[in-house]
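Task: encode each sequence below as structure tokens.

Item 1
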Amino acid sequence: MQAKGEVGIFDDRHRLLFIAERYPPSVGGQQRLNYGIYSQLRRRVRAHLLTPGVYIKFNLQKLWFGPYVLIVGLIRSYRHRPTHIHVSSARIAFLGYVLSRLLGAVLTVSVHGLDITLRRKTYLYKVLVPFALRRYDRIICNSQATMEYCLELGVLESQCAIVYPGVDTTINRRALSKSEARIRLIEQHHLPLKGHVVLVTVGRLVKRKGVAWFIENVFPGLPRDTIYLVVGKGVELQRIEDLIEKNGWSERIWILQQADDSLRDLIYDSADLFVMPNVSTIGDREGFGIVNIEAGMHDLPVVASGIEGIRDAIIDGETGRLVKDSDSAAFLRAIEELLAWDCETGAISGKVAATYSLHASGAQYAELLGLRTVCDDR
């Protein structure tokens, strides 16, 4: 039997249960990613979503989440009879495995990098997650680096596939010109951007993100008309604030701990360059770096450390530059080069849209999950 989907004809015998422990209305990069993947899959197959409705960190360690997934999953499965189960992260891989054993469904998972980095994880996590992953039908990795992490856990290469996170290319990300965006930021947030070169970093303030290293080692070499906007919060915040105070940079480096989608878009639109200065950190690795894609969709060039999954998030020489991590001279050269780039308007965003389309990612997911449409009318 076949049924009409939004993008074509799908086999009505295929039914998907999508389990996500991070999903809107909670906020974050994985929440947006899971929403995008599920939105694409439900256009191709009968799909049902199982999510706690809120995000609580380390759900695997919360006593209520495991029983919730199993009980509610079984109840919904009784009604909808899923043939396929997809879980959004290795953090809940064992729960998906148990449910699939009870239902006899095809089992797939998305992995992101940190969820399969076992350092600093509990003993139970270190045992259950690799055990479960080795029994999955398909493991979808967000980068080549993440796939390599999976292989270190004893997963077979034949189980793995790489699908880059996609962005919705139907949305015009650059809503305002640079000058208009800066005027709004000046008026609404009193940021002194007029007449300055503006660099931006978006992400959690943890050691591997390299913000403190960048401020300490690269920022002193930048022209005095440079403003650095940092969007995020985390355990490195106090260290960063101490560096700013020590060097008297309170008028040149600004930390915005909270930024909703509209403010983040405004910041991207106002910037000259996006910076992702990650540093190699044992036990804490970057799976992909989707903020590089988001910046690119605003036609913003990126300079980033060429390590781990970041290498798959930037097209070197076209959407930005990859440089050696912890090399301040290389960063300074790349920043100078990118600020002098004479790109046509829309060149960077066009390349990003062509390479990291959410629609293309959705089609790859559907095929890898065994949910390929019979015909696609787009």
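Item 2
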Amino acid sequence: MTNQASQRPAEMAKAYDAQQVEQRLYEWWEESGFFKPADDPAKKPFTLSMPPPNVTGELHMGHAMFVTIEDVIVRWHRMLGESTLWLPGTDHAGIATQSQVEKLLRSEGTSRQDVGREEFLRRTWEWKAKYGGEITRQLRRIGASCDWSRERFTLDPGLSRSVRTAFKRLYDDGLIYRGTYLVNWSPALQTAVSDLEVEHEERQGSLWYVRYPLAGVGSQGKGYGTSTPQPPTSNPCGSGTWAEGVTEWITVATTRPETILGDTAIAVNPEDERYADMIGREAIVPATGRRIPIVADSYVDANFGTGAVKVTPAHDPNDYAIGQRHRLPMINIMNRDATLNAEAGPPARIASRRAKIWWPTLKKKACWSKPPRTPSRSASASAGAK
């Protein structure tokens, strides 16, 4: 009797152990060049470029979903006998990476400004080299059949130059232009932040009622209460003299009184009979003395607040749209560090979150009141962009 037991293969494991199988098998696939396209001009080519995940990120369900779908497509085209390339790459994730590097510098008692541009760039590339490969390792682990020999990075010299060249050509051809537009600005990172990096949330705020003096037309003869004083020509801001002797007002309702300093118009609904005789007149911005027009715009909800709203095109998307329709100026009252600039008048150099300290000036002149709290919308940078 032969020893048949010694000739039998090892018993198959009762449970599938991915750690024992998949990584070894994938390494063999990659080393054997199975993911590279065939170098055969006679074969029909098929190329798929991977949407580049953030180089410093980690795999999440969204990545797993698109990688699975693309992998199925790519493997199918290989089975059709086509010369198939799935081109992998990673995105530079500038804001998220900058945030992490700045956090590291703060832990060392320094900052981006202290070390200077060149050293900061060196430290950023160093961070990328240290933490940048995790997501590609994870893509390999889930079996993505990319040609890793062609892996690209969005800041590779060739790719980066191609992007700059493409944008310059678009600009030279008049297809893109530089204009004044609203952005999500991060005072901490000193850069604009994508809409995708901004988280909006509802907060219980207050609806403030603010009275704006109406400017008289004086000798222009339109009969709009010539007893209403014109804005003072000397020291119109800070002391409240802009409201002295006023007999006519228009009251607006707002959840953001701190942006009054950047107002360039007051808007009312064209169908609102309460304000029909005010359209075309001018009001005086409290605390600054600036004269602004009263315009008619269908965006305004006549049933909200007083039916009259302040328009600050440089600080609100809806106001920006109104400003575009009426060709209103955009007055940016914010510095890059979130303090108020000279356009804000007397409250300049006050941090934006403390801008409300000038409001007592309005209260003193009976220009405002505070009704019950109401929901308002605010925005903050997401985790990757703080």
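Check on item 2: Residues 218-239, 351-355, 372-386 have pLDDT under 50 and may be disordered. Residues 17-172 form a domain with the Rossmann fold fold (CATH 3.40.50.620).
End of task.
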